[in-house]
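Changelog-adjacent note: as of this version, every example in the card shows the full chain rather than a window. The one below runs 305 residues end to end.
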Amino acid sequence: MGKYLLKSLLQVIPVLLIISLIVFILIRVVGDPVVLMLPDTATDEDRSILTESLGLNEPLYYQYWNFLINAVTGDFGSSFHYSQPALPLVLSRLPASFELAIAAMGVAIIIAIPLGVISAIKRNSYADLLISGVSAVGKAMPNFWVGIMLILLLSVVLGIFPVSGRGTLAHLVLPATTIGIGLSAQMARMVRSSMLEILSLDYIRTARSKGIPEYKVIIKHALRNGLNSVVTIISLQFAGLIGGMLITETVFSWPGLGQLLVTAINNYDMSIVQAAVFVIAIFVIIINLLTDVVYRLLDPRIRHS
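Full-length structure tokens:
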């Protein structure tokens, strides 16, 4: 396991280099940073001073090298909109995004795994058709629409939950449910497919022939061995949540990384965009490494190979 982790960590280095190059190029494709940062009333002298202070008068390869060195030390520049360093500002929004992502994934797991298992056990029954239909509808509904409907019903009409903000458990319910509904739809279908494949294997028939209770066959033998595919979809979805909750965080005014990123893009605040992209990339890499470790713990065949 130690050698595997060391090898995986070494593979992270070229990935981060590629990401840094992509970010560096995209920031300059968007437009001249000096023009984006200065108001229309700025003079040529103002533009010249800012260009020199940012090092944009240097050759591109030299600019990239400086960008890389600064990125390694955690220096992505300062946000001209917030007037503070970009990386600490991005990191300060991570706890809110983590909180929402974990809650949303919890909602999705609570909904998806039981529904997926029931759908597999009751294959081609009315329950299976109903769950499959609900999953398809849940997948098709956009998050912003679900969020608005929940706000209208549970906040405006019934007055049960607050409309927006963060601070209490009540503030977390609506945004977490909004994201969790979409996640659970895809996850339930994955659980169903995995369980159907496992339930058709010989060792399941052997376990049943030994007189083992059906619930033990389902939970101990089938579900546990079918968790690999579930772990895959959970890891992929969770990794995408941190940077993919832009719309939901905006709808509910949730002070997370997604809302910060939307504001930064609207204000052409490229320092925050660069820092946010790197933080999200590192988070995705960490999630992938943890997923591989969980695979090896769940499946002895992978661990021994």
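Structural remarks: Residues 95-267 form a domain with the MetI-like fold fold (CATH 1.10.3720.10).
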